[in-house]
Amino acid sequence: MLDFDTKNIHLGLERVEQALKRLGDPHLKFPAIHVAGTNGKGSVCSMLDSILGKAGYKVGLFTSPHLLRWNERIKVNGHEIPDEVMNTLELQLTNYNLRLTPFEIITCIAFEYFARQNIYMAVVEVGMGGRLDATNVVNSILTIITNVELDHTEYLGGTIEKIRREKEGIIKPGVPHISPHVSTSLHMSNFVEQNRSTVVQAVSALQQQGYKITDDHVKDGIASSKWPGRFQIVPGEPLIILDGAHNPAGARALKVMIKEQNFDRPITLVIGVQASKDADGIMRELTPLASRVIITRSSHPQSAPLSELSVEQAIKKARSFGKDQIVLIAGSLFVVADALKLLIDEKSVIM
After folding, report:
1. Within this chain, domains 14-224 and 232-345 share the same CATH topology
2. 202: helix, coil or strand?
3. How far apart are CA 323 and CA 198, in angstroms?
4. Distances from the Cα of 43 to the Cαs of 30, 48, 98, 201, 318, in angstroms?
5. What pairing do the DSSP bridges indicate for beta strands 267-271 and 326-330?
């Protein structure tokens, strides 16, 4: 099975184009909405997928990363790709001997599966950047850039301008484009509403292209959209909030959302980050919210070694402070994933 090797990253389109050609160019057999951005792009993709499904379209959704299973990344009308299809296609692609990265393999699997399923449209989230991302081969009918912040600087460049140029690489001549704001730091007062506004603009662009989407489809689609691990509230005592805020901009957005809730209970922050991330910047945003901070590390091999405390141990410690509190788990999607595994086992949450 695919490994989760976040060091095996080689941006570029040559390998993925060769692999897709051998598969019969499945990526050209359906139109796609292509979404890039530093934060919020997954939520935007999820809402668009839900809205299009409500409108009666057969939709393929490709997102990353996953929380628990690689299959989460590839869905058709909400249903994950079956294991047997995934495994067969992975073996086929591996046998091409093109030295594909894990992300290139999963991208090719998604496009081939979508073509086999005869989808009407795909909603495709960029993995990293845009210009040289493996997804930047799709037949896009609409492109979206949710925002631009400092992240993945070792691959995309060390300035906002350099990163913006990489993300703008998904823009195609003659293809409608939405870029509602250039930096989340400019307008952080209502991050969720920004994403919804982007989705509404996207729907308007699709309507202009002849897609039959009503206001009810939009309302019902947004209401039923689920994006696990992103401000996910797990009821109980204590109440648990999960958010994979993995860069300072995402942490800033989370901070605003927490403050808007006006919680009347103390917050215990359980936080862990990846070694490649700006730990100081993330901590600077989130620690002022908390009465207590428990530093942990996820089971991922590239987790920053800031603590020997596992996520399970950290949650147990947080719970020991009583029921009358909020436990906020953040800093990395991998920390959130470890927490979700525990909560699923406890039947506290259903994915």
Report:
1. no
2. helix
3. 38
4. 22, 9, 32, 15, 28
5. parallel
Residue matched to tokens 């922050």: 269
What's the rounded Cα separation, in Å, for the pair 302 and 275?
Answer: 6
**In angstroms, how far is CA 206 from the centroid of its own chain?**
22
Rounded Cα distance between 206 and 123, Å, is 12
Reply yes or no on domain 232-345 having CATH 3.90.190.20.
Answer: yes
pLDDT of residue 182: 45
In CATH terms, is domain 14-224 a member of 3.40.1190.10?
yes
**Angstrom distance (rounded) from CA 225 to CA 50:** 6
Domain regions of the chain by residue span: 14-224, 232-345
Question: How confident is the chain (351 residues) per 10-residue block, as mean pLDDT?
Answer: 57 90 97 92 95 98 93 96 96 93 95 98 93 94 87 69 88 92 48 85 96 96 89 91 89 89 93 90 93 95 90 96 96 93 80 63
User: Which is it for strands 31-36 and 121-125: parallel, antiparallel or unpaired?
Assistant: parallel
| pLDDT given at position 287 | 94
Rounded to two decimals, the pTM is 0.87
The pLDDT value recorded for residue 351 is 63
Residue located via tokens 């009358």? 324
Q: With b meaning 16 or more CB within 10 Å and e meaning fewer, what string describes 151-176?
A: bbeeebbeeeeebbbbbbbbbbeeeb
Q: What is the rounded distance in angstroms from the CA atom of residue 304 to the CA atom of residue 272?
A: 7
* Residues in CB range of 21: below 8 A, 6 or more apart: none
The end-to-end CA distance of the chain, in Å, is 22
Under 8 Å between Cβ of 351 and 68: yes
- Give the span between the Cα atoms of 268 and 285, in whole angstroms: 14
